[in-house]
What does this fold into?
Amino acid sequence: MSVRQKREKLGGSNIAEAFSRGEHEAIEGEIHGASQVAGWDSNHPQLEGNHMSTTQRISIKGLKIGEGQLDLLGETVKELVGDAGTVTVKEKDSEGLRIRSQHAVAQNARFADIKVRFHGASADVGIYVDAEGQIGMAWDGYVVRGNTQLKDHFEGRADRHTFEKNLNAMFVAKTFEETAIRKGFSSTGVKRVSLKKEKVGQFELELNTGGFGGFGNKKKTNSLTGSLGGGL
Amino acid sequence: MGKIKVIVTEEGQIKIEAKEGFEGKSCQEAIDFILNNLPTGFSFEELETIRHGNFSVVAENEPQAYLQKE
It folds into this structure.
């Protein structure tokens, strides 16, 4: 595709057509000047008006990764995406992976820690981990809509909320597993079980404590709250 | 030796079920042990114990559910 064709596609009637087809799920953000429009393509057309589509990162509420868990997050994303796309994890200490979008990319979303390109999509999903471990994602709706592999995997759903919820749940399950193995347990592995009737899925694993009996040597290392007690 | 089944739903609910092989408080201790050794910085917003049981034999038991609150 020539630069001219690209410009026409991005700035011309195709975007309006996409809106009318309901394919547009990008976060609507107000752009205050060109400095916040951190597009990846210098030929990216500047759309007129105060509002334009921007691919921004937003947090997955409640999910923070711990120290040294980026590799596990990458492994989780790879497993979750499976055959539906390609996952790239940034090298340690690198700036990150530049993501491509059909929209402008917000400045804080330009470089991702993990990048996903779903098959058939012409834009990336960016996954980010901030200094406090909060996970964020940025994408526009083009990247998942119509992806048959995702639909097969997620009980007919291929929207970003489903992907985020599954990523959240799978990462929690994998963190439990990793912790248990690190402390001497064994695991059957994390499996996604599809509940066809309810059209949702859940992640299951079974842990075997083995001969380990040192449960009393507790080391408080996380911010979990709430009591586990009662009933005994 | 005991077996623990962990289920995490899409809605963020974590169910932990002691399947077999636990005596006395050992099932609670095993679950506590995992939760207390999760990586530093990894956190849920809040956990709520909905039910906690004590199982020493193989049986179909009510799972313990930990709710990851919004």
In short: Chain A touches chain B through 58 residues (CB under 8 Å).
